[in-house]
Structure prediction request, 1012 residues.
Amino acid sequence: MRELIKKLTEISSPSGNEDDIRNFIKKEIKNYCDSIETDVMGNLIARINGKKGGKTILFDAHMDEIGVMVNHIDENGFLRFTAIGGFFPFHALVHRIRFQNGVIGVIGEEKRDSSAKVSPLDKLYIDIGAKSKKEAEKMIEVGDMGTYAAETIVTDNRIIAKSLDDRIGCYIMIEAMKKIKKPKNTIYFVFASQEEVGVRGARPAAYRISPDCAIALDVTGTGDTPESAKMEVKLDGGAAIKVKDSGMLTNRKVREKLIDVAKKHKIKYQLEILEHGTTDAFGIQITAGGVPTGAISIPSRYIHSPSEMVSVSDVKACTDLVVAFANDYDA
Amino acid sequence: MNIEKFSNAMGVSGDEWEIRRLLTEEAEKYADSVEIDAMGNIIALKRGTGGKKKLMAVAHMDEVGFLVTGIDESGFLKLGRVGGIDPRVCVDKRVIVGRDKIPGVIMVKPIHLTSRDERGKPVPFSSLLVDIGTEKKEETAKYVKLGDPVAFDTKFEKLSNSMIKGKAFDDRLGCVAIIELLKKRYKHDFYAVFTVQEEVGLRGASVIGERIKADYAIILEGTGAQDFPNKKDINKSPKIGAGPCVTIKDGRSFASKELLKLTVKVAEENKIPFQFKKPGVGGTDAGVLQISGTGIKTIVYATPARYIHSPVSISSVNDLKNKINLTDLVLKSL
Amino acid sequence: MDIVEVLKTLSSSYGLTSFEDDVIKKAEELISPYADGINRDKAGNLTAFKKGIEGKNKVLIATHIDEIGLIVSGIEKNGLLRFSTVGGIDLRILPGMEVMVLGKENIPGVIGSIPPHFQSEDDRGKPYGREDLYIDTGLDYTKLKKSVEIGTPVAYRSRFTELKNKKFASKSLDNRASCAAMIYAMYELTKLKHKWDVFGVFTLQEEYTMLGGKTAGFNTDPDLAIVMDATFGLQPGVPKDEGFDIDSVLTIARGPNLHPGATRELMHIAEEEHIKYEIEVTPGMSGTDATGIQISRRGIPTVLISLPIRNMHTSSETININSVINAGKLTARYIASLDENYENRFE
Prediction:
């Protein structure tokens, strides 16, 4: 487990440039499904065939992560950049960026106004150590993308890494695929592209598949750190079954089925309301004529930072819930 | 290439009546079929000579403007904004109101009667009123109805051999480009689409994907030029005169890698000047077209124009010609 | 048809966004006598179908049936419930409000707040934040846990009151009044001849994601859509050109979300039928299902009729019953005027 999570989280694949993570996942899953394809948007779609009369379920986790895109190389070889997805200035300062071609940079800031607590994005730059514009242009082009560079740590019960949002969702789907054998339902696993820039991959994928129900797997916040905003979800509290987030309310029947399945199989679960933030579920739910959609969330601290943190037991609970739901669901 | 009549035409998002009529007439001269859909989008088809793909070029016909939201006791019109207009560019401008294009003036208090305090703040949009010359509410009501569209009244003008001035270059220049492309015939079926309501949320384009399952879509837009004097060492693209602006990523979409590669290749081989747009900024119809249905490969070529979303824009005809040329060659190579 | 009874039944039922089952059941009972068929589409919207004489074209009537409210976000050890909001709720109306916790049973409660003398001088000058308010049912933790969990909906407690001059105060007149108007329209249509097929849809989840409107448009795929929703009634504090007289008018909307040709036709019918209306200008998004329906599928020509109510999004929304009747009449007469000569025209 440690190895797979390490590999998944250490790959740099920001929204729009998911080739590396897609190729890796493809290799991992090819022996555990009946078909694999990549669609126009770059989604990786795997299918496990079910039996006649079974339902079609879509599980979704997004492969892309937040990052940066270079928009200017200045006269002295420093880079200016724009955010890819929710890349927040208050996490960014002095962290390391790895560009997709391997170049490493450090995020610095202009002189700060005394009144400002955090420099906004347009007052930050990336230092790749170049001595001049000419040297920098040999290393980087405008349009190049990068992500945080951070080492993944896995202990007995904690995983600390960048891009657990949503590589941990991808991990759960990969593990579930290994465990689902000859299901009655047809199961699609969509490793979606471009979630962080507006839920862009999942929508065409759901449109094409038109499932009977869909479950999105993504991270959610927790309310268990000092003086945090009030939220019931906590690390080690089990698989979070989403009720509401800032983009949608989950389908009641799907949510109740998830709860029933969790109770039946004695899988630890908790109920989730997230005040700020949403997932692919929001886009899938309103596709075409509507898809009954729910979400299983992995409780996470420090989301969108280089040090996201989740609980190993929660991850296992989520995996078990995915497998159980895939097998038990019958609308 | 008659930019003048298209730039001058009225077409505030949601009521694109005049520009739609002009574009339909023009498209009917060159297309095999022209349809207008439920939203008012124009879809013109030029059948291919045997190719199996579906190509699409898209430009939006609507412009930012206003709607009449109230008529006060003195007969002056209150306005609501349609699309993103900075209130500071609205003061003391000439406008045209409704289907009869009634001329009006956005009034301003004379400077002599303003206090220093007042002059230190922008004129609040909610205080702006339009005078069409009537004396009271009942008289105005004979000419104007609540909800009537109001557009800037700017007349097109050539400033030099290459520079032009007018309103709505975002995106009437794109519309002009598409008319030029309609004059040709390509290997594959070519859909020339003029969308409505781009400025109020890419709404016209939202319904195109259900009707046309295109393989490739090139969106021809107008984008704000950034070539102003600015001491800071940051990205100042796009520049007027440096050619069509190719988008790698804007606020709503990534360019298809295949189309991006092809664009650069075609431009370099044919020595067509082009520039890359500063990544991250803005949004176009590509944002909704790309994720419609099962997904479409898209790219955006934009003509840089100064002062878009204001009463007057300035742009270069050479950039427009190069954009048309580039699009034509890319469509030929697909 | 006793329209006041219909309005009372609908607005007194509970049906928060995404928890609409109870009110859907009532709506189905109320509309069935006037429909040829009823079903729920893939997204859960309740559709009442009425066959037209020719049946070549389809018209969709859409009224959202969900109401705003609260949702339990936590149960404190002392039995007080914390909550999150569903839809646009002004927190300032909550202190002292009576609510109904819709758990396994309906449990009445009150929204409590810290008494002023326990607050600092500074804090007393500010409205209560969401995290300072609680729902107090008087029950203890153990009892509550049996019936309530995170995600249990909590509604404004229902209280339907008749005021003077045909006016009524209740929760959720936004948008049950329009739902009542749609039922009235279906009833009128049984007395009129209409050529087009009619789909009367109670849409879900308008107050949060507009899910129902978007999917109803897609699933029905009509040639025309008539949306009915609430708009602002004039009251002190509402500017003159943003509110409408609740005693005399309906509104017909003009703006990018609405089809200019169809809207003109609707105004024409209103004038012919002597139904008073005013133009409501919406330069931006309409804030109703019209926004989602217009761009669903291949695009649907949409018109919007609005019923003015005072105190929108509170538990004492106020309406004149004539608005409901007139909206229903106008919708029915408009539909009856549609024939095979209908063209999608913008001029």
Observations:
- The first strand of chain B starts at residue 33 and ends at 36.
- Residues 3-63+167-333 of chain B form a domain with the Aminopeptidase fold (CATH 3.40.630.10).
- Chain B touches chain C at residues 13-15, 17, 20, 36-41, 66-70, 78, 80-82, 145-147, 197, 200-201, 203-204, 206-207, 210-211 (CB under 8 Å).
